[in-house]
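User: quick one, fold this
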Amino acid sequence: MTDLPSATSPSSRRRRRRGGKRALRIVLLTVALLILAAAGGGWWAYSHLNGNIDSVDLDQAIGDNRPKKVVAGAQNVLVLGSDSRAGANGDLDHGDVSGARSDTAMLVHIPEGRSKATAVSIPRDTLISRPECKDGDGKTVKAANRVMFNSVYSLAGPACVVKTVEQMSGIRVDHFVEVDFAGFKGLVDALGGVTVTLDKPMSGAKGGLKLDAGTHRLNGTDSLKFVRTRYGYGDGSDLGRIGLQQQFMMAMLSEIKKQDALGNPARLYKLADAGTKSLTTDSDLASLTSLADFAQSMKGVDPDTMETIMLPVAYDKVDPNRVIVAEPQAGKLWEALRTDQKIPAEAKNSPAKG
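Assistant:
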């Protein structure tokens, strides 16, 4: 019988070295595969989220006839909520409505220093002068007077809404962000709901949401009903609905801050996936990198210090179901925002209260 080599023999040491090198190669290969998988997953996630975003080139769509920027460090962002029933939106609102309108419109002003913000809601029933615009197909839409503000979107698209707001205010809109029904619902559900408090009951009139006075945790579907409620709360006017929309926006921002959603990668991805699925922005914001950089620059804005204002309006004398921009209040409001100054108290006084 041949003797086996001892553990300390040269041949045994050579086998151990070969075995050790083989094990090291396996470990290194495994690590390399994990790195590639992580990088591939990250690239897939980036590409997936990036591909969700639609965009509009405002400079190309509007042209050179735009207000000049007065304060370089300030930012003005037009936030639009579309009431389109296309695609997944149709399952969320079964109203017999064709096309789409800007169901919600807020001009958010972030002063130089970006430590606070002011959101100005523009009532959808406001009669305005619409400038000449190009629609999405490049066709000219003629200027018109005394048209409802929310009709501009359906007739000529978001770039024309931006141009209309710039004409109304004299303020250069730096960016616009548009979210539809499905995107709004998905964002709320990704947060796990948003908490709101009512000082009076919501009756649920005309298919709206029915809630008792008090605090409620709303999912995405009910949140959509909440911000669209009109007839079942307050005086049943569009102006009254603006108060609910502003209240909900503040509650959502507070929820994002409370959850530290921007500091949690898993939750951030979930929010980004939900939020970008139905997102349209100007071309300067139309990438994850640009959105992330912009969000980072807004990190100092605290929801607790954010001011919400309704554009001052008065009831139209010809059609009391419509409102017109109230002067001189609106002019003073726009001037303060344009020059990054404190808004005077009289500029917040709207003759039509809602």
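User: anything notable?
Assistant: The chain has a mean pLDDT of 83.
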